[in-house]
């Protein structure tokens, strides 16, 4: 395994362990952030959607590259672009540490030699992203929204 990929995999795993039982500081900051023309609830909902979509796309690319539906090198380039866009979106929502991990992953993919390296690295990033997602999801008052918000 390329050393850069192995090191990044370990770094993401360590960061994931840090946030497993304790909400990351950037999540606490996000929940108190009010962007122009919105409130903190809107910030949480939009960032929730960003994390969800990036995680879904990482998984889809991972699977498409692994099973050959997308050629290895082309798939890595497409995934790297997706990750760079995701990192920029994370910056928009004031998630600098998460943005950095996503951006580093995009860069590290250039060193990947085989699908197992890619899968191992992306698995760590997927678990990390899903942990962020759970921290946001746990604070969204879904039941209250379902009772009080109606579009008809």
Question: What order do the helices and strands follow?
Answer: HHHHHHH
Query: How would you sum up the global shape?
Result: globular
Number of helices: 7
Low-confidence stretches: none
First-last Cα distance: 55 Å
**Helix-strand makeup class:** mainly alpha
Percent strand: under 5%
Task: Round the Cα radius of gyration to an integer and report it.
Answer: 17 Å
Largest sheet: none
Instruction: Give the mean pLDDT.
Output: 90
Helix content: over 70%
Q: How many β-strand runs?
A: 0
Structure in a nutshell:
The chain has 152 residues and is mainly alpha-helical. It has helices at residues 3-20, 25-31, 40-66, 72-92, 96-108, 115-137, 142-148. The longest helix has 27 residues, at 40-66.
Write the layout of secondary structure elements.
Layout lengths: L2 H18 L4 H7 L8 H27 L5 H21 L3 H13 L6 H23 L4 H7 L4
Would you write up a description of this structure?
The structure is a single chain. The chain has helices at 3-20, 25-31, 40-66, 72-92, 96-108, 115-137, 142-148. Helix 1 runs antiparallel to helix 5 (96-108) and helix 1 (3-20) packs parallel to helix 6 (115-137). With 152 residues, the protein is mainly α. Helices cover 76% and strands 0% of the residues. The chain is globular.
